[in-house]
Amino acid sequence: MSNFTVKPIGKVRNNEDGTFIEVSKHYIPALQALEGFSNINIFWWFSDFDDDQSRSTLQTAQPYKGAPDVIGVFATRSPLRPNPIALTTVDVIHIDYEKGVIQIAFIDANDNTPVLDMKPYTPSFDRVETPGVPAWCSHWPKSTEESAFFAWDEVFTF
């Protein structure tokens, strides 16, 4: 097995002005031609869960109501996983190309979370017309837009 070197390209900023991806100065040229994409996929590091215990957790007790009693971490979006990599599709509000700052609507990452990479959301590669999900989560929203108004606190068991 090989080890991999991953270098953050920026960080998440959450403050009173909103939610942002701040791209490191070196990577600002990589933003060229991103305008026009309404959404981007952000790959980020669950930095608060990068420890031996979190990385060795392979199963968890029922995290969602109605789910099996024990569920593997690959069937969750839990931060506890062998490699604490996360993916969130975000809505782009504004891009400041000079400063390397992308204002986004929301991301489920904490302030100062390292951003590893980003890719434009393109329906031809990212959209699945009729995705299949287990019965226990079939009542969840069918889009990120619907998720904003969904009572997630009624789904999670923690």
Automatic annotation (TrEMBL):
Cytoplasm found in the keyword field: no
A Pfam family: TrmO_N
Keywords: Methyltransferase, S-adenosyl-L-methionine, Transferase
Positions of the TsaA-like domain: 6-130
GO molecular function annotation: methyltransferase activity
Record SUPFAM superfamilies: YaeB-like (SSF118196)
Keyword S-adenosyl-L-methionine included in the entry's annotation: yes
PROSITE patterns given in the database record: TSAA_1, TSAA_2
Organism superkingdom: Bacteria
BP-aspect Gene Ontology terms: methylation
Family: Belongs to the tRNA methyltransferase O family.
PANTHER family: TRNA (ADENINE(37)-N6)-METHYLTRANSFERASE
Name recorded for this polypeptide: SAM-dependent methyltransferase
Organism: Clostridium boliviensis
